[in-house]
Design brief:
443 residues, alpha/beta, three-stranded antiparallel beta sheet, 57% helix
Length: 443
Amino acid sequence: MKKMEQLFPSFFQPQLKENELTAEDTVIVLDTNFLLDIYRLNPSLADKYIASMRKINDRLFIPYFVALEFEFNKSKIIRQKSQIINNQKQAVLKAFEEVEAEIDKLKKDSSFPSLQEFTLNKIELEELLNKDINRFSESSRMHSLHNKVAEEIDNKISNKPTQDFIDETQKKGEERYKQQVPPGYNDAEIKEEELRNYDGLKYKRKYGDLLIWETILNELKNRAGRVNRLVFVSNDGTSDKKDDLIFKASGQRVGPKIELIEEMRIETNVKFYILKNSTFVSMLEQISETDKREINQQLNHFDEFRETNKSDVENDYDRFTKTAEDTIIRNRVFNGDNIRYSNPLRGDSLNNVNINENKNLHAREDDSDELYWEMPIINHSLDIDSDNDEILRRIEILQHRLKRNEEFMFQAKSMGDKQRYLSFRDEYDILRHQLLSLKRRLD
């Protein structure tokens, strides 16, 4: 071995070969975003992701924290996918109406007599789109998809960690993040106040990547002498805003951060590789260039959705967390259905708020509740009859639910429960979009 390779071995790590993915001395770790991508993608592409998992099932290792975050986030992804599909439907219908309007203009022009007999069937188009939406929304399909994912990872998940392990890792993380030692330091500020509580365990989400990393190192130490390479499959690090996982040169991904390669080599004597989700799948499954473009397009829809649907309420929360203690919501009293508090963000004092104050809607509370919980999965508002009275009734219900949901969000803020706040905020955003869709029906 040359002296340079002896002194700096992490810079001379050999490239990963395709046949090494299925080699006995390889361990493959799937990140949470890989598992969630299965729910983001259309069925045919999702099946290819699952098929790739099946081919290397004997090599899989899923850290406990990957599986836990997957369970916490999969319902949110399903709701977002449903909303994206509905948004696409509305875009198609809008484009259809624009074409229809242009054709109507041409029909009045004697230069196009053949168009007099030409008609566009908007009803048939909408029925076809609704059929696709309903197919996606079928709970049986979602249940089947989850069963397929669970079948591949159930026996590969690491044991539940101890709180001592979490506390020790977080303490270690404080020093690592100060020195920008990967992984996870990019999350230090973004997820500073986000906590995760589950099954007696508590941890700060900003240390999630580090907890996964430490879990992997411990597993490799337990398999000492039997593992030669670790392949981490993740889209984390593809963003220009994140540099705590991937080493980049002139904006191009080169490979894992050298610090990570070095730490794994020293701690476990194992080579460390990172693959993008689609790259990993393409190495195991037949994926055409069209498939690759479709994967990127579908995943980009989610990125665009997150950016364009940041609500005013979300921005309110950011302002709220930065305000002085004397502006924090207080005077909270819970008494049955009554919630009393003051709201500094709206600049008013709602010391006696009754969430059922709307007498006209009180009699329809059961209907309202049912709509509230079902609408995130199935967009009822787009499938109702065109009767204006029914649309107005749904709008009234939605406005009531939005107001109620907003009160729950501020309630969660006052208790410092950001996880609960984020859950209500997700519902708020979906309901708000559904309300806008209904109002467009009346235009």
